[in-house]
Specification:
Blueprint lengths: L8 E5 L3 E5 L7 E5 L6 H17 L2 E5 L5 H13 L4 E4 L8 H9 L3 E5 L13 E5 L1 H16 L2 E8 L5 H16 L3 E9 L4 H14 L5 E4 L2 H13 L7 E3 L5 H9 L5 E2 L3 H16 L7 E4 L3 E2 L4 H4 L5
Parallel strand pairs: 3-4, 3-5, 5-6, 6-7, 7-13, 8-9, 8-10, 10-11
Antiparallel strand pairs: 1-2, 2-4, 12-14
Helix pairs in contact: 1-9, 2-3, 4-5, 6-7
Length: 313
């Protein structure tokens, strides 16, 4: 068998970490510290990284702190002790990771932030942020809401984890779209559900109890949007409340096709993983990379779902 045909093989996998190594590693040793590996978007990121590792001879260690910022700091320090070439961090807390990524920089290790960035202070110790066009996603959904409500109505937002990059950007993008469209839309509730479908269901139940009029709900990702939809359907209010999300998960695209959801914005998380490995390889080769690398997005609506269905994941 030629070396070119040798593929990535899994040599260690536990509930907390997986080590993926090529048969003849020639690329960077990457240590990836997620924030919640169970989320479908993070699963897609990991698959993109794993697949692309075969093209660059990369060795990848995946670590999952399960949304615990203290564990994440400890895992970054573990990556330093492993002498990784590149540490990739999806920050649970933007500020909490700063001391650890500072240590990585001081140890001569490249740091890439992925999906959830660090603070302005922390950026001094990182090489790049790789994620999705989350402001544009929020803007696209905002325009969908404006169109669906004819520029006037009451909207609830179920957000991701407070302070994280995508949470901030998607809300800001939505509000910018409302402003640019000259819409008179009232935000009646903005509540976090921490990227959890189950939490979103509970949050939506509370919102339904508190507000007699709700014209639309924007879940910052499709699982949360679908959780909100479950709560809405349980109260028989699906005819009056339009539901929007972000991701382009297959369930959401199917719900848009059937008329249960009104729209989502693609998040090509697989590409985020692909771009991360490419950037890590370039850094390891001493090459300059862009400070911001973003996977593209597109609006998925009842009018466009047929066009984008093949990209839903």
């Amino acid at each position: 068998m030629s070396m070119k045909k040798l593929s990535v093989r899994m040599v260690l996998c536990t509930a907390f970490a997986c080590l993926i190594t090529p048969a003849f590693a020639q690329g960077p040793a990457i240590c990836m510290v997620h924030n919640n590996a169970d989320h479908p978007s993070i699963t897609a990121v990991a698959k993109g990284m794993t697949d692309e590792a075969t093209n660059f001879g990369a060795e990848i260690t995946f670590l999952d702190p399960a949304f615990d910022p203290v564990k994440q700091v400890a895992m970054i320090e573990d990556c330093i002790s492993r002498k990784a070439n590149v540490i990739v961090v999806n920050a649970v807390d933007p500020a909490a990771v700063v001391p650890a990524i500072t240590k990585a920089k001081e140890a001569g290790i490249h740091v890439i932030m992925q999906n959830a960035d660090t603070t302005s202070e922390g950026k001094a110790f990182t090489e790049a942020f790789i994620g999705s066009q989350s402001f544009d996603q929020g803007y696209a959904v905002g325009l969908m809401i404006v169109k669906a409500l004819n520029g006037n109505g009451k909207v609830a937002v179920i957000t991701g984890k407070t302070g994280q990059t995508d949470t901030v950007n998607r809300t800001a993008g939505m509000e910018a779209a409302f402003k640019d469209a000259g819409a008179t839309i009232e935000l009646i509730a903005v509540q976090p559900a921490d990227w959890s479908k189950d939490k979103a269901l509970t949050v939506m139940q509370d919102i339904l109890t508190r507000f007699p009029q709700i014209d639309a709900v924007f879940g910052h990702d499709d699982p949360m949007a679908l959780g909100a939809l479950e709560a809405i359907k349980a109260q028989g209010r699906e005819a009056e409340i339009k539901v929007f999300g972000v991701n382009g998960n297959k369930e959401a695209c199917a719900a848009i096709k059937s008329g249960e959801m009104y729209g989502t914005a693609l998040q090509l998380s697989y590409l985020v993983g692909v771009y991360t490995v490419r950037a890590a390889y370039d850094l390891n080769q001493g090459r300059l990379i862009s400070k911001t690398i973003l996977a593209p997005t597109a609006p998925v609506t009842p009018d466009t779902v047929a066009q984008w269905e093949s990209q839903c994941w």
